[in-house]
Amino acid sequence: MSNHARTAFLAAAIAVAAAGAPRRAAAQRVPTDRYDAYFKKYTKRYFGIGFDWKLFKAQGMAESGLSPTAKSWVGARGIMQLMPSTYHDIASHRQEMTAIDDPQWNIAAGIMHDRDMWTLWKDSVPDDDRWRFMFGGYNAGEGTIFRAQGVARASKLNERTWPNIESVAPTVPRWRYKETLGYVHTIQENRKRLSPLTAPRDSTAP
């Protein structure tokens, strides 16, 4: 399977998972710091030194309330709400990854998929907005966000800014846009709860 095909497959599977993912962040008043070491480790590994690891913790809060035993009605599991088939595809290339319910490997696999999404918009969206496209792709699938960008272009809007994607979202076919826009907003609000939000910067080599 090509890298692009693999990315598309994973995005589609995670999008299905996200549709049924439990949203427990609101009930979790004080986010646990129990898994911070994993978020820091795999953010550094897949995004480079200095990238904002708390963005991915905020994502885990949105996905599962940071619960390693979380399971959605469609079968997505763990902190990052990965489908078993998606996790298997990622783990099959990395022998160190064991059970999907292991918080370390669930977080690692989720951040690895985030990296795939981040890379898709590397040359077309500024870093200060690209994290919204990344999480939008994680939730809805990359194809959906690409379609939204096409609608924005057709409407003579700048497709490189997330507010314009939000503007055209209701007109994009085959997109549960309210879920995706809410998901990205929830991550942003979770991130603010953790500490002041600064724009993430890609510090990895081209």
Report on the structure:
The chain has 206 residues and is mostly helical. It is 57% helix and 0% strand. The longest helix is centred in the middle third of the chain and has 18 residues, at 103-120. It is built from 9 helices and no strands. The chain has a single domain, classed as Lysozyme, CATH 1.10.530.10. Helix 3 crosses helix 9, helix 5 (103-120) crosses helix 6 and helix 6 (127-140) packs across helix 9.
Topology:
Blueprint: H1 3-19, H2 36-47, H3 54-64, H4 84-91, H5 103-120, H6 127-140, H7 142-154, H8 162-168, H9 177-194
Helix pairs in contact: 1-6, 2-5, 3-9, 5-6, 6-7, 6-9, 7-8
Would you identify the regions where 5 or more consecutive residues have pLDDT less than 50? 22-28
Mean pLDDT value: 87
Computed CA radius of gyration, to the nearest angstrom: 16 Å
Return the domain count: 1
Please tell me what the overall shape is.
globular
Provide the CATH topology: Lysozyme
The CATH class label is Mainly Alpha
The succession of helices and strands, N to C, reads HHHHHHHHH
- End-to-end C-alpha gap: 23 Å
Largest sheet: none
User: Count of helical segments?
Assistant: 9
> How helical, in percent, are the residues?
55-70%
- Do you know the CATH architecture? Orthogonal Bundle
Strand content: under 5%
Q: How many individual β-strands?
A: 0
By helix and strand content, what is the structural category? mainly alpha
